[in-house]
Amino acid sequence: MRSFSRIGALAPAVFAVVLAALVAPAAGWAQTRSAFIGTVSDSTGGVLPGASVTIESPDAVGGTQTMVTDNRGQYRFADLPPGTYTLTANLAGFQTLQRKGLRLPFSTTLTVDIPLGVGSAETVTVEGETPVIDVTTAQSTAQVDKNLISNLPLFSNQRDLAGVFELSPGSKDSAAFGSTANSIQVDGIQATLPETGGTNSTVVALTWLEEVKVVAVGATAEYGEFGGANANLVVRGGANDFSGLLEYRTTRPSWMADNTEGLPQATRTRLSSTEIFSRWDTSAQVGGPIVKDKLFFFAGYQYVYDETQAALTVAPAITKWPRYVGKVNWAIAKHVQAEGTYSYSKSDFRNFAPNFALDAGGLTAQPNHLWSGRVTWALDPRTLWEFRTGGLDYVQDVQPQPPNSKEGPPPRRDAVTGISSVNFSQFRLQEGSRLHFGTSLTRHVENLAGGHALKVGAEIERLGFTTTSGFPGGLSYTDRNGVPDQVVAWAGDIEKGTGTRTTFYAMDDWKVSSKVTLQPGLRYTRYNASTPSTPDVYETSALSPRFGFAWDVFSDHRTVVRGQAGRFHAAMTTSTWDFMDARRSVRITSRILAGGALQEINRVTPAGNTGIDPDLEQSYMDQYFVGAERQMFEDFSVKVQYIHRDYRNTAAFIDTRSVYSPIELRDPGRDNVLGNADDGDLLTVYALQNPGQSFLLFTNPDGADRRYDAFQVIAQKRFADNWQLLASYTRSSSRGRIDNTNANATLGEGGSFANPNAAINADGRSGLDFPHMVGIRGTYHSNLLGGFNLGASYTYASGVAWSRLATFRLPQGNANIRVAPRGTEEAAAMNQLDARFEKLIPLGSRSRNLGLYVDVFNILNKGFPPQTRYEERSGASFGQPLNWVEGRAARVAARLTF
Q1: What is the pLDDT of residues 363-402, one digit of tens each?
Q2: Domain boundary residue among 81, 96, 127?
Q3: What does DSSP assign to residue 360?
Q4: What is the pTM of this model?
């Protein structure tokens, strides 16, 4: 933490200020979510203490709120849900001013000053003119609201979460600002998998969302445990008016074009084009009041069916996926509010991976539950207490497709043809859970070297994950052009990890002057890990200082300069210690000799041969950024910013006992066959001299780092005057020893710090490094002919980095070794345009209509390979895409809104 010595020195001051806040007099409201703040003044700019300010919205449970401006003429309404509001200010001897149609995003503070003209009882009404910049925070957030989500042509398949995430500038293929270690929350509760932080446990239909807020750049001390971004999926709530949706969408088999034309015939024959047999989904949802102003509800249902044969697969994959959600918002008392959200989904898949034969398919069942609850209590006009709880229950059961089973026959893979056959490669049963409790106290303080919004909080999270896995039949064969070459015997493992995260944080929004806000903060986290056989595997602690600023340059709330320096520690994931569970089996690798005899060449015995460094430290990312944002005209802003990240202290395995000696072997070339003109140069590789003697220690090895730099320009027009726009350009670079795609290949038991063969050519461009990214999303509404909507989404992203691997027959067994530095090749760039046209049919009222729309995906009919890149392993399929984007496809839909 040497680079943060100055920031860390602020910690005592932060806690001292917080302690003072608990006893100091104050005025105003504390802030946790969204807020309106501002000053009431006369026509000369003089402040008006004692003015009455009222706020109301059909979206806010609890009804109308009223407060009186303080001695500086200031007001503050905090802990508000996103929605559209009306602000009214009046004072005897002055005109009443009413500001209507103010749109407040989630977790945003908007400054709305209210000038009152001299007069009697006259009321002046101003419609719209909502500020679009939060000038009170160092956070540079990305927000995608329901207007954009519901009117864009989103997703030709069911990757709802990934697609919404990619709407955020700087995000692509689940990588945000150089990392895939993202924190995904549903209504503020962590919803990622405890094992690796994966997002497939987060199932939220698009139509349920009020907004998606992505926090990465400038995140305050209340945010932690991520290396990419924190994305909060805010589920819609009810309101005083009933509203709802019925929708049906479908894509028919003949509505997809072939996008393999122009490829070499051999590639086209192998690749084929995606074929749809049946694809449709249907949704129903409704929200409204149970008790007016007091108790609101929202409920939704979606069912997805998809039978599609993707490129490179031998049979259609089938998905059946029902999803449910329910949410309530309750004003328990005048100053006490509560909300709760629950969702359930159960997906069933029949899987065929690329290059898997028909007898190697798998079946997956995946039920999961997500829930969250929140209570807030305004103890007085200056203090707010909050309590949160929530959790996740997740199961994924992956089994071979009948008549095969986990009892056998054993699976096979050919190292030359790249084809997997006979049985599904590996069965597994995963069971995970999270349980979270958190509380915070926020207090607004004045006249203490400026104004302060101080917040202290504590969180405790208990997580667990169990994986039962193995090879069908206990064996896995590798062939070479159909000739048996190697077999691995493994009876399977049961690995269970449980852990506890305890966090305390303190932060301050310190308004030094009318223009400048400072945001010092400190986050302390303690991690405790265990397994059934090792009750106390390890304990680590992490201190994460943050210091940010926001400068309202011209005091008109239209231009802000922001910056922050901060440390962000990695999330706790059970995969970093569950290997200490003693219920792991021996793995024996044998060469298959002529006649079928076996020659053992390596043996890995986990029991007693793995360990964790007692001085292990939590991995972290240091982030620095500076940027500026300007409101150019009403509802339109432009932002420029530079972001730098250093990923340091990454935890990985090293091997402290194995002895290797260098040998030179010939690169078998792109065909992976020695002895022909395709062969490459000699390569220095490493032969294991003492097989079966390894000791794998999980520690913080030197050189386990990565660097990310980015420059961004973001333009956003909030929905007004019938159109909206979100456009961005990101120029970035991600390089280092630690990759951001397959972490196990770098950090795992066979990774580049544990195995010298895996370290060959390991330093270079990250696998998910996109030097250039462009995103343009926009919609337009017209009232002509009853009304219609247009929407379009364009994405450009540089191709991802890759390089060739070859299979070398070493004394310890076959090894795939990188023969060129990582990132020397670049995949084809992504260049995709999607569009929507919707015709609206009014049904008797402004809020009730029938929409008939058509989405056209991949209008340019490109076939670029996405995240999975090309086949890197030498052999018959080397350089071929591992999958292929669907061709131009149309989807038609009907939706009834009311």
Answers
A1: 999 999 999 999 999 998 889 999 999 999 999 999 999 9
A2: 127
A3: G
A4: 0.89
